[in-house]
Design brief:
heterodimer, A: mainly alpha, MetI-like fold, 13 helices, 3% strand, globular, B: alpha/beta, D-Maltodextrin-Binding Protein, domain 2, 4-stranded mixed sheet, 13 strands
């Protein structure tokens, strides 16, 4: 049936209207406010150009927050993808009850980040420490969340626990779409398991890696809920000789700036986050795309 | 063909309905001569009490209805207020928590200097001599102690009026830990992680801002706002803070939440608790039966006996509202009528900031504060004069670092000196 243009337009309009009102207009408002001194309430808003951005560059707490966000993202990309790829190999093998494992590994993803943060905080601060005291294991006696140099790694581990099951599903779908004849042919040719994984499976799944790395990259960069409940930004540490919060990622840093009624400054930080995320993810996708093979 | 026409008809009518909804949905506001005073407040613990009082007041005053909206536990009150202001729904009565809030909302805040309750309180919110805020309650703190534990350890709480006295008391408690069944002498929290920056970076630091001075003496904090720290005084304060950190339960200090801190004291596992009278309901809930009192935060080399008293928040009347007069009358009724007093003390369990109130609160710490208030010689709490976010974002990490390593006095003083110097730049 030929469709009428009018109907096409009418069905698209509500969506486009919402998109423009909720995404496009606020986005440009945001850009504008990042160059003002607005505090969130005051009606007289003064345009101050790039002053907010200059302040950010000389602010140790923001620089530190940016750096640990990058570090946290890198750790996550490696950890989440290795773990979830391993899991996907496991649940696509001839393992018994593999469907049960698939469901099991996926369940943490269904728990909200807020709840999950509190659960792990309790585990790490109370259960592990009590265990350490009972069994006299020196490493466990202080919570991993209270040491500045372990806190980011701990967050990455918790994030992996939550997120690996989800990424695993993407890998599983990709592995299952590879024709069985390819693997069998390699098997007949005498390639062992490791060779098959590295020479056939991984190149054939390159598009799954593109999407998985993209997803882990963007979610880690924007991490907020688990950050807030698990560590609340603590403990404190020293950066450029100034006390800063050791695990305050960018999103949380923006949040605490905004709640201190420095809306314009928070908006400037959000713009920086947006640009950084845009640049990094574009680079990542274009690099990964080159490695994909066409069937 | 028929099908297509029908489809087109349906699509167009849907669009029209949506457009109509947008155009007329806002509607004209209903008009009546009756006045409705809208109040927006954040103390979720008094929700039932204030709802009850508002209903009682509305019933007694025909033509006036007071509606109270309460923001649920730990919600972002500032954010909610901004949303209301942007939507043109500013409440008639709202709350501020100090100078920061005042600066944001000053265009909306009415002058209350002519109100009947002004002479009855020391804690109204004043700017340039004008009364701008109605004190919601008195809160306050010292170092709360478990009288039973101190008695067993042979420590007289009345003598805890100097830093040296505290040091000796802590040493005794530390040496008798097993015998007294305690984990550590003090339940103190200072961690960013536990969200407890306010105990250290706000309430404890308030001892430096106001301790040992006249109740309204803001000279030290005004100096700080100009970027200066009184080094001699701050050294004495730091030594006191170091004592608290050194004799604190490490787990609570570095990681603990509010519940961990209060729970430890309530279970008798610590002898001192650095918290205010707002823990009374928590202690009651945890079934505390032992006797509790307040000792002063005596950080100076000389004797100090006062507790720290303050109004944590104030009600402000929206100056741009047509109902401002009705809102003022409602606030005045809280301060001046027996029903209002009954609401504050018996229903809401608060310590009223008005001297004419004779009713007594039920909590042990609240009673201790009320007694101290009657006796006089207490200290003011001025952290509300600091810029928004100073306690959480600037002092919080500094106190957290000092708690991690309480031997490093010089670093702490250097960090604070620089942080205070930066206050003047903003």
């Amino acid at each position: 049936m030929k469709q009428s243009r009018l109907i096409n337009v009418l069905f698209v309009v509500p969506c486009v209207f919402a998109f423009i009102m909720i995404i496009i207009i606020p986005f440009f408002f945001g850009l504008y406010y990042s160059m003002t001194d607005w505090n969130g309430v005051n009606n007289d808003v003064n345009f101050i150009g790039f002053k907010n951005f200059k302040t950010l560059l000389s602010s140790p707490e923001f620089l530190f927050s940016f750096l640990i966000t990058v570090a946290y993202t890198l750790i996550n990309i490696v950890l989440v993808n290795i773990v979830s790829f391993g899991l996907s190999l496991m649940v696509t093998s001839k393992l018994r009850r593999r469907n049960f494992y698939r469901a099991g590994f996926f369940v943490p993803y269904l728990i909200g980040g807020i709840v999950l943060g509190y659960i792990w905080q309790f585990l790490l601060n109370n259960i592990l420490v009590d265990l350490g005291n009972m069994l006299s294991i020196e490493v466990l006696k202080t919570s991993f969340l209270s040491l500045p140099h372990t806190v980011i790694w701990t967050m990455a581990v918790v994030n992996t626990w939550q997120y690996a099951g989800y990424i695993m599903l993407i890998y599983v779908a990709s592995i299952q779409s590879i024709p069985a004849s390819l693997m069998e042919a390699a098997n007949v040719d005498g390639a062992n398991y490791i060779t098959r994984v590295f020479r056939i499976l991984i190149p054939m799944m390159a598009n799954a890696f593109t999407i998985s790395i993209f997803l882990t990259l963007t979610t880690s960069f924007k991490q907020f809920d688990m950050n807030l409940t698990l560590t609340n930004g603590g403990p404190a540490t020293r950066f450029l000789d100034v006390p800063v919060k050791a695990s305050q990622l960018l999103a949380m840093n923006i949040f605490s700036t905004a709640t201190a009624n420095r809306m314009a400054e928070a908006q400037a930080k959000a713009v920086v986050l947006f640009i950084a995320l845009l640049v990094v993810s574009l680079i990542q996708v274009s690099v990964n795309k080159k490695k994909e093979v066409e069937m | 063909m028929m099908k297509k026409t029908l489809l087109r008809f349906m699509a167009i009518s849907l669009m029209l309905a949506a457009a109509a909804g947008m155009a007329f949905g806002t509607g004209a506001a209903e008009k009546s001569k009756d006045v409705t005073v809208n109040m927006f407040q954040l103390k979720v613990e008094i929700k039932d009490a204030i709802d009850g009082y508002a209903a009682q007041y509305s019933a007694a005053h025909p033509g006036v209805t007071v509606k109270v909206e309460t923001l649920g536990g730990g919600g972002d009150y500032g954010g909610a207020m901004k949303a209301k202001a942007q939507a043109g729904q500013m409440p008639d009565i709202f709350m501020i928590e100090g100078r920061g809030g005042y600066d944001i909302w000053k265009d909306y805040i009415a002058d209350l200097s002519g109100e009947p309750w002004v002479a009855d309180t020391d804690l109204s919110f004043k700017v340039d001599g004008k009364v701008m805020g109605f004190p919601v309650a008195i809160e306050g703190y010292g170092l709360a102690y478990n009288a039973d534990i101190l008695q067993k350890a042979g420590i007289d709480p009345a003598k805890l009026t100097t830093r040296t006295a505290y040091e000796n008391a802590f040493k005794v408690l530390e040496s008798k830990k097993a015998e007294l069944g305690i984990d550590a002498p003090v339940a103190m929290a200072a961690s960013v992680a536990g969200g407890m920056w306010w105990v250290a970076g706000q309430h404890n630091l308030a001892a430096y801002w106001g301790g040992g001075l006249d109740f309204n003496d803001t000279s030290i904090i005004e100096k700080a706002l100009k970027g200066e720290l009184d080094q001699a005084r701050f050294l004495q304060y730091t030594k006191y803070l170091q004592l608290l950190f050194k004799y604190a339960d490490k787990k609570i200090l570095l990681n603990g939440s509010y519940d961990d801190q209060v729970g430890s004291f309530a279970q008798g596992k610590t002898a001192f608790l650095h918290q205010g009278n707002w823990v009374d309901p928590n202690l009651k809930q945890l079934g505390v039966t032992f006797k509790i009192g307040y000792a002063p935060h005596a950080f100076l080399d000389v004797e100090q006996k006062g507790l720290y008293l303050f109004a944590p928040s104030w009600y402000c009347v929206n100056a741009k509202s047509p109902n401002a007069e009705a809102a003022k009358a409602f606030l005045a009724s809280i301060a001046t009528t027996p029903e209002g007093h009954d609401y504050m003390v018996n229903k809401a369990g608060m310590i009223p900031a008005f001297k004419s109130v004779t009713l007594k609160p039920s909590g042990q710490l609240s009673q201790a504060l009320m007694a101290a208030n009657a006796k006089g010689g207490n200290y003011g709490v001025f952290f509300g004069m600091l810029p928004d976010g100073a306690g959480q974002n600037i002092f919080g990490p500094i106190f957290d670092l000092f708690a991690q390593n309480p031997d490093n006095i010089n670093q702490f003083i250097a960090d604070m000196t620089r942080a205070v110097a930066n206050l003047a730049k903003k």
